[in-house]
Design a protein that fits this description.
Keywords: Cell membrane, Membrane, Transmembrane, Transmembrane helix, Transport. It comes from Cohnella endophytica. It is found in: Cell membrane. Belongs to the binding-protein-dependent transport system permease family. By secondary structure, the protein is mainly α.
């Protein structure tokens, strides 16, 4: 029977067979959960009962009327600020280490190493660094006579999110640097040399020649940073449990709490879809700004 098929038909069947397994897995583990999440967002369900009650848009009303949820969401923007600083520092180090600096490969490895460390290990390591009683940071501040700066880093509502944001900068800045380094090395050296021959300073070369040629990569890094900061969960969950008094709660920790502590999977699903909508809106604004600046 196969011999009676044309080459084009055999090729089509072969492509379908190769795609059948990945498309099936995609449907089972991505598309189906997404559709089921939308379905749950309109239901009232405790996660255990086989019966689900139709709630309509009541779950979304509960989300938008809950001040605690949006107060927690405001904490995500602290991480976003640290994420933007992380991108700026990654770009700065990439520019420095793309030059003929002696030992630049060693510096690259040192700066990239935090990224390959396990996230849980990083969290527990900084738990000792920021510990108010025996932490290395407060011990150092006491040793140099800056006792007034030695505070409870995870116990102060005004400081806790910045302490956690610093940890994200320390861990992910090296990844941004490596991505920017790869982009810098793809910029044609001829146009940089041409700009310098025309009298452009190093800053002018970076501003008007190098950065415009890296705009797609900058956009990608900002895309990853925004998604990561708006969906931050592991650090506040492991280090502070949302404390003190909810000062380090994020939108995602409140979502998990709503689902697994209060057993309200309907509202938790609505919160998840609301977060997705906000991510799409913010990314659209970011894309418009970067494209406008790139032009």
């Amino acid at each position: 029977m196969v011999n009676n098929l044309s080459y084009r038909q055999q090729k089509t069947i072969l492509i379908i067979l190769f795609l059948l397994v990945p498309l099936t897995l995609l449907g089972l583990f991505s598309l189906y959960p997404a559709v089921y999440l939308i379905y749950l967002s309109f239901m009232s369900w405790d996660g255990f009962s086989p019966d689900k009650t139709w709630a309509g848009i009541a779950n979304y009303k509960d989300v938008f009327a809950n001040k605690e949820i949006w107060n927690a969401f405001s904490h995500n923007f602290v991480y976003l600020g640290w994420g933007l600083l992380q991108n700026a520092m990654g770009l700065m180090f990439a520019l420095i280490l793309n030059s003929r600096l002696r030992g630049r490969n060693v510096y690259r490895v040192v700066l990239f190493m935090p990224y390959i460390m396990n996230g849980v290990a990083v969290a527990y390591m900084f738990n000792y660094v920021f510990n108010s009683e025996y932490g290395s940071l407060n011990t150092l501040l006491h040793a140099v006579g800056l006792d007034s700066l030695a505070i409870s880093w995870f116990g102060s509502p005004k400081v806790v999110n910045h302490a956690l944001g610093f940890i994200t900068l320390w861990k992910f800045m090296g990844l941004n640097m490596v991505i920017y380094l790869a982009a810098l090395q793809s910029v044609p050296s001829e146009i940089i040399e041409a700009a310098r021959m025309d009298g452009a300073t190093r800053f002018q070369s970076v501003r008007h020649v190098i950065l415009p040629n890296m705009m797609r990569v900058i956009e990608l890094n900002l895309f990853l940073t925004i998604i990561g900061t708006l969906e931050i969960f592991d650090l506040p969950f492991l280090l502070t449990k949302g404390g003190p008094l909810g000062a380090s709660d994020t939108f995602l920790t409140k979502t998990v709490e709503m689902a697994f502590k209060f057993n309200n999977f309907g509202v938790a699903s609505a919160m998840s879809l609301t977060l997705i909508a906000f991510v799409i809106v913010i990314l659209s604004v970011q894309r418009w700004v970067t494209r406008r600046w790139g032009d």
